[in-house]
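Supplementary Note 3. Input sequence used for the single-chain structure prediction.
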Amino acid sequence: MLYDYLDTPIGRLTIYSSEDGIMRIDFPNDKHMKCDRGTNAFIDICKEQLKLYFDGRLREFKIKLDIKGTDFQKLVWRELMRIPYGLYATYGEIARRIGKPNASRAVGNALNRNPIPIIIPCHRVIGADLTLKGFAGGLNVKEFLLRHEGIVFKT
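The predicted structure, written as discrete structure tokens, is reproduced below.
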């Protein structure tokens, strides 16, 4: 596994890749995994796509991911990737979409474990009352990402 950094408007992100794809993106305050610093095609493509996203020129990421998680987490993360740029869903909506209408709390837990934020857009999930709820990068980062995408929510 390799990692490299990308400076962005929300701070320095750390991007991790295996030989099979992007595995993780850490926010500035996250503890970093121990592995070798370097780059490969996946990291290079990810960095370029993130730059385009933050420049407002990319709305859909197209990069191979190497996602590790439980079957339930992967189900939730796949559903998150169906939320289009500029739109949002609630925790309850995600639970219903995956066929588990009473699993809003479990959906929230899966979002909390999302290893690849921004690309797997957990920031696009908000509370049923249309307010911001928890986010690994901090609510200020979630707010920035939502506003960046033109999403209106209650403050």
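The domain at 2-54 is CATH 3.30.160 (Double Stranded RNA Binding Domain). The chain has a mean pLDDT of 94.
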